[in-house]
Amino acid sequence: MLEATILFLALMMLTFVVYYFNDGDILSPALLACFAFLVSSIAAIYDCYAWDTGINLATVFVILFGLVCFVVPATFFSRRMCGIDTGRREGVAINVPAACTFVVLIFGIVAAIMYVRSILSVANVVDGDWSATMQGYRRQVSYGNSDDIALPTYVNYSFKLLMAFAYAYLFVFVNNLVVGRKVCLQYLLVPFLYCGTSLAQASRGQIIIFLFAGVVMYWVMMSRRSERNLRVPFSTVVWIVVVLIVGLALFTMTGALVGRTTVKTPLDSLACYVGGSIIGLDMFLSNPGAATSPSNIIGAETFRGIYAFLSGALGVSRWNYSFQLEYRVINGINIGNLYTAFRYYIHDFGFAGMAILTIAQGIFFGAFYRMLIEKKELKGATYFASLLTIYSYLSIAVVYLPLADYLFHQYLNPTTVLTLLMCVFAIFVLYESEKVSRLGLR
Questions:
Q1: What is the value of pTM for the model shown?
Q2: 3-state secondary structure of 119
Q3: Would you list the DSSP string of 36-76?
Q4: Where do the domains of the chain lie?
Q5: What are the tens digits of pLDDT across the range 340-397?
């Protein structure tokens, strides 16, 4: 537990330095990564105590090294620089016609019904409640035949289009909240439908990503309207902490809805999910040979999505592989199979590869964030809305760095590209429907 405490103290100092160099911008990519690792280290301390275990100093240095490789370029590329126009960027309220929302909602209901029916078919649970059904679906996805768990193509595309419209309506809702100080609840109907339907995936992850995207959208829009970086007053920090605690508690208590059952207490489950990855990384570093991923394919863990695409495109069967990161057990306790994002890079490319990939992420997110905050003109409202939606969707990868690799392992594939293009299409439809409505009223 001593080493975990040392990690926490070192992360505290690093976070303080990063906070200073990012001018207190708490959602800048560098500071966001520091906060995420700080929370994970607190949970890891509790895990070490509860599981009567610990981590090695080598793991402490690996995490600090990897985080520094991310925050340095992220800070450099996201800071507001002297000589750049940082005046207020005023926005315009968006009024989506009720008819358009009605049509999208009807489509969403149909897509949701088809999606849930397909999920139930894959789960193949005749008798049992919803939790048992979700457990069945999780088993099929994890260990079933790939042909048996594949959903019909039209169902998959319909659900992704529903998701795209949910993100588009989320942008409209946040935009009107920031620009016009109006709470337009009708724009949350499609997002609520999407979030409810996504529970059928036996995962709460998509809801977390969606809610976080809304926070990022709000923060970026508010920052663009401010002449300097937003600073969070202490009273707001208190409310943020309260909301996070309530949100994490709800996250734990809703496990049964997605088929996650456990004998652990809610606190133990939460600490295991948030901090177990640090202990998992320590166990991996102690015994890298226990990895179950293919060892004869370069980048097998990091670029899984790319290999799956190339396998179909080029007909190379050995690239169409499936694997789960190995589950770890400590003193009879299953701590899961999360290892931080660094495990993927170390396994595939060693420590030098870890440095290169984390630096690349820092540059990507830092530059993207700075462009959204500072650039005065972004080729029109639709262009800005599309870029902000894309960034908001991808930025969860920064928060998940202490848990797993999202940018390369999860998002670097044609499916994500298609999803983001659908989001751009959905935003275009909403903007064009407003233009048509305005022309019709003249």
A1: 0.86
A2: helix
A3: HHHHHHHHHHHHHHHHT----HHHHHHHHHHHHHHHHHHHH
A4: 2-80+236-291+326-399, 98-227+412-441
A5: 999 999 999 999 999 999 999 999 999 999 989 887 656 667 888 999 999 999 999 9
